[in-house]
Amino acid sequence: MENVKKVMLTGDRPTGRLHIGHYVGSLRERVRLQNEGDFDEMYIMIADTQALTDNAGTPQKVRDNVIEVALDYLSVGIDPTRVSIFVQSRIPELFEFTCYFSDLVTLSRLERNPTVKAELGMRKFGESIPVGFLTYPISQAADILLFGTTIVPVGEDQAPMIEQAQEIAHKFNITYGEAFVEPKIMLPSSESCRRLPGTDGKAKMSKSLDNAIYLRDDEKTVTKKVMSMFTDPTHLQIDDPGHTEDNPVFMYLEAFATDEHFARFLPEYKNLEALEEHYRRGGLGDVTVKRFLANVLNDVLNPIRARRHELEKDIGKVYQILEEGTAKAREKASFIANIARRKMGILYFEDRKLQEKQQKAYKKLHEQEEALAAYLAKNKKD
Ligand code: ATP
Ligand code: MG
Hints:
By secondary structure, this protein is mainly alpha-helical. The protein has 17 helices and five strands.
């Protein structure tokens, strides 16, 4: 397909407030892309329908978090005049295409998805896996494809979902004709930002694991969480040589600390390399490093907290932003949906050509029938 628009789309499940893992994994990238102004269209989706796939029994949790996530977006600097923020459940085209796409994917392909496999393990569904949960990658493909998305900025755990969306676009295009763009993933350049570990040292900071530092945590909470963070278990005495790799405190510093932070809060060290070198050599205590990290995080979070505080004063306005963003998103999704429906040949009422073609076929058939009847009648007489 030529001359495709540059479209960015990404989203979050409203299963909790957003945390610093979301910030470095995706939110910060979105703000950067927004400010660079390279995209023709930008969409951010609050995936409430996807959140229900493993929270069907607690709809209130999902409902409450829609507005929390919207507030988090606006407080990190997403500008609703440049980005359409929308709510997934209000775009019916997404569910129609989830249904068509389900016919293009096999059950074994879904069961092979490594992120879904890991999530199933974490959620302990046992034998009672909701169908909607296993198939959410298909619905996520609809979310991405129905906007003509070219770039999806996400964390590493989302790579299998983007692959699934590419496969579905390809399969649809060769089966019915070209309607969908094959999207590309955009991962943060730094390794530690792609999958920020939890404060407990677990592989991924997650809303569901109680190991997160939230964007709206106050200064005291952030400092307390940082001071009790998991570090290098072999670094018992200050003089012991320490490990910086796989050490969440250093991974957070890699994701957040700038040289300017060193100049302001820890001028004994020029940059992160110098700090890491000392830690590895021995003689640098965890408390010093953690205090520095708490300062850095609070410095990054302060302006975000201040913006949130302002936004919380007028929730009606935030809902209005969501409503307007959703209307814009619906317009785009229904445009692409019509292209795809036409390729599938299912625009029965709108497609005049299809009707005329059918009419002609019947006319021909009737003419043949009449000719045959006349011939038979004539033969009988003779
Ligand atoms: P849930 O446990 O409900 O799935 P989650 O914390 O995984 O919540 P999502 O809404 O699924 O959050 O993911 C939103 C975005 O944030 C995705 O792009 C995902 O890749 C990214 N993300 C989530 N956790 C991290 C993390 N620890 N590090 C980097 N990126 C992350
Ligand atoms: Mg997730």
